[in-house]
Design brief:
The structure is a single chain. The chain has helices at about 35-40, 45-55, 65-80, 135-155, 175-180, 185-190, 220-235, 250-255, 285-305; strands spanning about 20, 85-90, 95-105, 115-120, 160-165, 190-200, 210-215, 235-240, 260-265. The chain has one domain (about 20-305): Zn peptidases (Aminopeptidase), CATH 3.40.630. Helix 2 crosses helix 4 and helix 4 packs across helix 9. It is α/β, with parallel strands linked by helices and about 300 residues long. It is built from 9 helices and 9 strands. A 9-stranded mixed beta sheet has the order 1-8-7-9-6-4-5-3-2, sandwiched between helices.
Amino acid sequence: MSEHETTCRRSGAARIDPSLLGQPPRVEGARDPELATLVATLSPAHYERYLTTIAAPTTRHSLSPEFAAVMTFAATELDRLGYSVIRRPIAVGAGRSENLLAHRTGTGAAPRGLVAVTAHLDSVNQEGRSLPAPGADDNASGSAGVLELGRVLAGRTWSNDVVLILFGGEEQGLLGSIDHVGGLDTETRARLSAIINMDMIGRKNTTQPGVMIEGGTASKALMSELVAAAGTWTALQVTTSLNPFASDHVPFIDAGLPAVLTIEADDRANTDVHTAGDVLDTVDPSVALEILTMNLAVLARHLEGRPPTP
């Protein structure tokens, strides 16, 4: 019999107190033509290729060879797009996993701003490491989103810097992001203007496609930007939460940094998380593309060094 895995779990028993959720009014601003051109380069075909490749192995457990193989795929893709790619080892119990960081330097004068786009690459079956853990929604959907945003952002030059991060060890307790944040120097922390984490962005759990934007005190301005972007560029129904937990935005928030989680609406209704049932057939790429559109609209303004629109 397989030993049960400890998981970083948002669904099931880990319920969000409804009183802590906000339902902000829809904010619809003018669509900037240049940004509209950029948003139009998001590609369902590219996103689905990334999603299918990442979710193809039987598991992406942090300590598995399959995890390492998918990390190699991601590293190859981002290197081809012109990013400087680093793979950093992390400890997971007595074993070793890794984080992937892909940097792209802006054209502005130093000190430049820095934005981070993150997701965890690992998957887990809560019933045991030896069991199938395809992790299509949790979190091939978010990891594929990092690659697709990376592809789009590589298509033009930006004033500020961007780093794309795929974490290992998330399911064992946010180990990859804790390690990463612990290693940030003072100068890097000061340059970070936005950290957008994507975890489970591909499931339609509600009648209308929706997103929850979750952050902390340091994230409030970024959350407001995302709410406005959702209203301007998407049909997403938005909820917000100031109760951050159980994903890789939390170590950043604990360090006082402006990080948010963007996640499918009513994620706790997804009972396939951490089971063999989290397969590609349950993922709706159109939901993920809407969330990517919202995120891209905000990232572009930070990378341009432009203030958010009111």
